[in-house]
């Protein structure tokens, strides 16, 4: 039964990744059909991110009220209805409106499942969980592309993913008894929570949150501006640069698959540290070399370095701050991570317009250094507490 529940959780994370990459793939067609400017996608993306941040912050209370199983069911149902709304949309305002439940649903299920796996499964399953998200994020644009090519309709792409989500809702509905195997009666946890109203005063909270902020800012920045850097600084053609960015994301996905097999030999802090070193090597290669395939290797190394960091940081949450605090802090960590994703890449885009995109590897290295210092600080705090 445990294996069956784990499979369902993996499937849920594939479905979580599916819509994340669809807007960008669909937008050239959407903006033509609805006669909206190119920048219109930014507002929709910010609405989704805003909803995700809000629901992530509230996820601790929601988990305690409903339990992980019911909250996952409700969240996936919300995202399914939102995607169905996208498929029927005929104007830009409607897209903005249905983006609200899409963000709210995604943030709640993301935080809830991350917390559940961190509490009840090994580090390898956390890494594989995020690998399955990568599969969904990779498949989303493919589904959209097929829908546009075959039907000439981006709405059909969203409809296809909505149907997948509805099927998952049915699976989750029948799987509710499985969650009770892990104590989905929340009364004991609520009692513990009420005794711990000062969870945010725990030692190490600020550096932990800063490391989440910097990691997600780095991952998104690397993917968003990598192609522009290659084209404008390294002289790579636009079509080749786009393909190379896909290799960056493939590096993240495959890296997390491999990472799951080595978690039994390496601790979470060691995996985080190793990933940071690999990112640094990749960024330095991009900075110092003009060789075509060295630049490609640099991008792949940045992706592979990113692979173990996020799942390892999430899985380390109960170790750093205790299982009783994990539910509340997981949601806050996810919210701060989404803030990094939302705020930093656009700011770097504006900065690049002033100082030049050639500083792209420097931006990556600055975010990396701040993340590294923050991670090492929280590691020292945990080590001191363990030795007492």
UniProtKB/TrEMBL annotation:
The keyword Manganese does not apply. Its main location: membrane. SUPFAM superfamilies: MFS general substrate transporter. It holds the Pfam family MFS_1. GO terms for molecular function: transmembrane transporter activity. Residues 5-378 form the Major facilitator superfamily (MFS) profile domain. Keywords: Membrane, Transmembrane, Transmembrane helix, Transport. The chain crosses the membrane at residues 36-58, 70-86, 92-119, 131-152, 158-179, 208-228, 240-258, 270-288, 294-314, 335-351, 357-375. It is found in: Cell membrane. GO terms for cellular component: plasma membrane. PROSITE patterns: MFS. InterPro entries: MFS (IPR011701), MFS_dom (IPR020846), MFS_trans_sf (IPR036259), MFS_Transporter (IPR051788). It is a multi-pass membrane protein. Belongs to the major facilitator superfamily. PANTHER family: BYPASS OF STOP CODON PROTEIN 6 (PTHR23514:SF3). This is Major facilitator superfamily MFS_1.
